[in-house]
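Following up on my earlier thread - several people asked me to post the actual chain instead of describing it. Fair enough. Here it is, all 91 residues.
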Amino acid sequence: MNIVGLSVGLAGLLIVGGILAMLISGIRSVAQGKQDFKRIAMMLVPFIVFGITYFALGQDLPKAAVMTAGIMMAGMAIGIVFTGLKGTFRF
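Reply from S.P.:
Thanks for posting it. Predicted structure:
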């Protein structure tokens, strides 16, 4: 096994471990009443958007990933604009 394969495998392992740690922490926080379930459920939005784009684009993984990133960035930009408008006009 070469160094590139080993480093990619270790990076993947770290990513999976981080995601599992976040999931366990989120479940524990909800169970203890420290977090609202709606805030934790918002973390599922990118996965839902990815699922929709994956099947809408004919199960093409790279295109679905890029489209998901674009949609999430556009949503973030729209959210920033609405937040700025809310602060400017005191809604």
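The two ends are 60 Å apart (CA to CA). That should answer part of your original question.
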